[in-house]
Amino acid sequence: MNTNWIKAFAPATVANVSCGFDVFGFALHQPGDEVEIRLNDSGHVTVTQIMGDANLLPREAHLNTCGVAVQQFLHATKLAHGAEIKLTKNLPLGSGMGSSAASAVAALVAINHATGNKLSRKDLLPFAVEAERMACGSAHADNVAPALMGGFVLIRDKETLDIINIPTPAELIAVVIHPHIEIKTSDARQAMRKTLSLHDAVKQWGNTAALVTGLMKEDFDLIGRSLEDVVAEPVRSIFIPGYDRVKQAALNNGALGCGISGSGPSMFALCKGEASAQQVAKAMQEAFQDIQLKADSYVSGINSNGAQVISSQ
Amino acid sequence: MNTNWIKAFAPATVANVSCGFDVFGFALHQPGDEVEIRLNDSGHVTVTQIMGDANLLPREAHLNTCGVAVQQFLHATKLAHGAEIKLTKNLPLGSGMGSSAASAVAALVAINHATGNKLSRKDLLPFAVEAERMACGSAHADNVAPALMGGFVLIRDKETLDIINIPTPAELIAVVIHPHIEIKTSDARQAMRKTLSLHDAVKQWGNTAALVTGLMKEDFDLIGRSLEDVVAEPVRSIFIPGYDRVKQAALNNGALGCGISGSGPSMFALCKGEASAQQVAKAMQEAFQDIQLKADSYVSGINSNGAQVISSQ
C-alpha cells in the first residue's frame, strides 16, 4: 500500500457554453482545486482538512464531494483501503465554475494514482458524476468530464457517459468573470422550464451543431454566431445582476460570444487571441463594478490536459 | 435576352437525418428533377409541360413550385422577362426525398443561368424557400439548401438562412428506400408535437453536435451512435408501415444508422462503403416486400456539387 501523500490538481470548467445546455463543457488552465490523499488501513474515508472554503463545506466524507468520489472509487475497485483527504479550495463555491466537480476530480486522480493508476480517465468519470449528484442534486457530467479529461468536450449521452473531445483552435481564449454573489446549482436547475417549444429546440440544436463546426473548422465568426442560448439564458440570467450590461460590454469589446458559465453567476466569453481576451475581461469586470458588484476575472486558453497529479511523495 | 432553352438538374435530398430535425440535409447524386427554361418577353411565367407526375401537379405557375421560384427570382431581380418552364419529374411526389425542392432548385439554377448567372447559390436560396412555403405549407430549407449547394448542410438558423457546409468522409454512402405510399409534408408536420421535454431536447442536441463531430472526424462509429431521433421518429414512423422491421433490417446488415428521410415515407440509411450500402439497400427493400409493399431503392455518395446546368442551347 502506497502511503505517500498524493497531490492532484483539477481545473475550473465552463459548462453549457451558451447553446449546449448539459452537453458542452471546457477546462481552463487556472484556477483549480488541489486535493491531497494518503491511503491507510482504516477502511474509512475521512476528510481531515479543508482550506479556502470559509468553513462552509461539510467535513463528513459522505456529504463532501471529494469524500463521495473516493468512496465510490474504493467501492467499485473493491479495495479495502481507507483514505485521508485534504482539500485546498481555490475555486469559489456556487460560482458556476465547476467548483464541486474540480474537487471530486482532483480526489479521483489522486486516489487512482495512489492505487497504481489502474483506471482510465473514462473509468473514473462515473464516480465523479455520483459526487455531482450528491453535491448539486443532479448527475450532470458537463463539469466533471472536461475537468477530468481536459479540452472542450461534448457529452453526447449522459446516461451512457458517451464523451467526445472537440478540437478547438489554438487562438481560442476564454474569459470567466465571477461576481461575488452565490447561486446554488440546484436552485438554478429548478428555475429551468421542464418543456420547451419545438421552435426553440430547433434553434438550440442548430447552434450546438454549428458551434462544433465552427470550433473544428476554426471559423471564429461561426463560433460567435453559434453562442446563442434560447433555453437557459432567458431564465437564469435573471439571477445575475447586470447580466445584459456585462454581456454587452463583452460583445462591444470584441468577444465572439458571451453567456452564463454553468448555472452562474459567473459569466464566460470566448475570444480570438490573448489580447482580445484581456480587453474583454477588463470590460466585463468594469461593467460589474459599475453596479457596485465586485468580480474576479480569469483569462485562459482551453486546457487540453485536464486534472493532473502534481506531487507524490 | 438569351432565348435558348436552359436545362438544369437538381438532386434528391435527405432532410433531418435522424437527430437534425429542420437543421440537417444532404444531397444525393441521383435521382433528380430536370427543368428547362426559356426566356421570353411575355412578362409572365408559364409552365407548359410536366412529365412524370401522372398529371398530379398544378400547371398554374403560382401554384407550381418551379413557377413560384421563377416568379420570386424575376420579381427580386427586377427583370421584366417572361419565362416558359418544362419540368421532368424523376422524383416521386410526397416521398420525403425533397421532390418539390428539387424542382424549385433546378428552375432557379436554370433561370439564373439564362439571365447571366448574376446571383450566387446563396442568393437563390430565399426564392427556393418561398417555393417550399407554397408547396409544403412551411418555409423550411433542409431540402432546398442541399439541393442547391450540394453536400451535407447545416441550417444553423432558418430565419437568416445561415447555411453551413459540413465535410463528410468519402466512404460515407447513403441508401434511400421509397415505399409506394404517399405522405404529405404538411400532414407529417402537423403530427409533430409543438413542445418537447427538456430531457428529450438535450438528447437531440447532444446528437446533432455529435453527428457533426463524427462526420468531420470521419468517426463512423460516432456517426452511427448519433443517428438517433427522439423527436420526430416516434411520431412520424407510425405513418410508415413496417418501419421498425425495415430499420432493424438495415442495422442488422451493417448500416451505421437508419431513419426517416424528411417527413417520409422514404427511409434512409448511412453506410460505410459502397458494398455495405448495396447490402443494406437490398435488405431494406426485402423487408418492405415482406409486408407486400413495393419499394424503390437508391444508393449514392454525398453529392457535393448540388444542382447543375446540363445544357444551354
SSE inventory with pairings:
Two copies of one chain form a homodimer.
Chain A: E1 6-15, E2 24-40, E3 45-51, H1 65-76, E4 82-88, H2 99-114, H3 121-136, H4 144-149, E5 152-157, E6 162-166, E7 172-179, H5 185-191, E8 195-197, H6 198-217, H7 220-226, H8 233-236, H9 243-252, E9 257-260, E10 267-272, H10 274-290, E11 295-301, E12 308-311
Parallel strand pairs in A: 3-4
Antiparallel strand pairs in A: 1-2, 1-12, 2-4, 2-5, 5-6, 7-10, 7-11, 9-10
Helix pairs in contact in A: 1-2, 1-3, 2-3, 6-7, 9-10
Cα radius of gyration of chain A in angstroms: 19 Å
CATH architecture of the largest domain in chain A: 2-Layer Sandwich
- The ordered H/E elements of chain A are EEEHEHHHEEEHEHHHHEEHEE
CATH class of the largest domain in chain A reads Alpha Beta
Task: Tell me the helix content of chain A.
Answer: 25-40%
How is the main sheet of chain A built? 7 strands, mixed
Shape of chain A: globular
- Count of DSSP H/I helices of chain A: 10
Oligomerization category of the chains in this entry? homodimer
Task: Please provide a brief summary of the model.
The structure is a homodimer of 313-residue chains. With 313 residues, the first copy, chain A, is of the alpha+beta class. Chain A has helices at residues 65-76, 99-114, 121-136, 144-149, 185-191, 198-217, 220-226, 233-236, 243-252, 274-290, and strands spanning 6-15, 24-40, 45-51, 82-88, 152-157, 162-166, 172-179, 195-197, 257-260, 267-272, 295-301, 308-311.
